[in-house]
Amino acid sequence: MRKALSTPVWMPLVAFVLLLALALAGIQAYAFAPIVRDALIAMLADWRAGEAVPIGVPKSESQIFQIYGATTNAPLMARWAYEIVPFFAIENVSNGHPYPSFILLAPFVAQRSFVVAGSAHCEDASVYLNDRFLDDQAQLLGSLTHELIHTQNGNFCAAPAGFEGDRSVWIESHTTAATLEVMAAMCRYGNPIACQGFWQELSRLPRRSVQAKLGRMGLSWIYDLWANVTLRNDTEDAKAEKMVRFWNGHEAELQGIVERYGELPWETMVLPGICGGRLDTGNLRMIDQERAYFRVLGMAFDDTWTMLGWLPAGLLCAVR
Ligand SMILES: [Zn+2]
Question: Does residue 5 carry a pLDDT above 60?
């Protein structure tokens, strides 16, 4: 008969197994903590954003207008631009220029029609908006703000000399982060559409972060289930399901987009900003003309922080 293990031998073994289990659970909790954090913020923001409000202007027109300094087929967009750009000066995005030379609201063609809301050229400060996304005024204000920020040069238009990474990711993440703060600023200044746009943006970024993190774990189905149950209505469910089929066979590409344009600006710019950091805009402001003294503009996320409130902001900064 084999002798049973005596107490002093198996006790450490059990303790070891228990400790290992605890450590693994700890690692799991550590891995899931940012997901829970971002899921909570996304749901809070989605709830605050409310329902989409269609914009009451006709879709793209072929008639061309001259509104202030802009040539456009969408007079309302030009007026909005003159509402938005001055905020860039007080939010330290730029010096508050240039103003757009050209704003075109038009149907984008082919696949871009479904996946691109707008584009801009910073060389001539021209902005193009996709009229498929006209069914929500807050989203349109967000897109216009985003594209106008691209025209403000600095890190919103180009990567610094010698930059070795993906230039488009650099430009998009800076622009995405700045858009959120400008929406917060406009909301705090009394624009209700901007408030809704702010919460939409604030829901989108952590949502993409959840999607990216679960995607890397091979748990995309949990993301879809969660989004369907908590964030989407029936129409949005159907739309999301349709786009999942569109991305079928290109999951790696979709994962890359979600990581680079959602998770990355959220983790590396917006979160540090909410927790007190500043966004390096790459734009200069003259401080002293005689001595030709300039300083680099750093954008604070103070309005974003104020919109969030100390409790959600505290949660975000505690789990980093
Ligand atoms: Zn962009």
Answer: no
| CB-based burial label for 63 (10 Å; 0-12, 13-18, 19+) | exposed
Helix/strand/coil for 301 = coil
The sign of the CA dihedral 37, 156, 73, 184 is positive
The total number of residues written for the chain in this structure? 320
Q: Does the residue 296 lie in any domain? A: yes
For ligand 1, the distance from its centroid to the CA atom of residue 15, given in whole angstroms, is 54
In a domain, residue 8? The reply is no
Tell me what pLDDT residue 56 has: 72
* Structural domain range at position 150: 35-318
Would you say residue 10 lies in a domain?
A: no
- Distance in Å, CA 150 to ligand 1 centroid: 7
pTM over 0.85: yes
Q: How far is the CA of 188 from the centre of ligand 1 (A)?
A: 24
Per-residue pLDDT tens over the stretch 155-168: 999 999 899 999 99
Whichever domain contains 219, its CATH number is 1.10.390
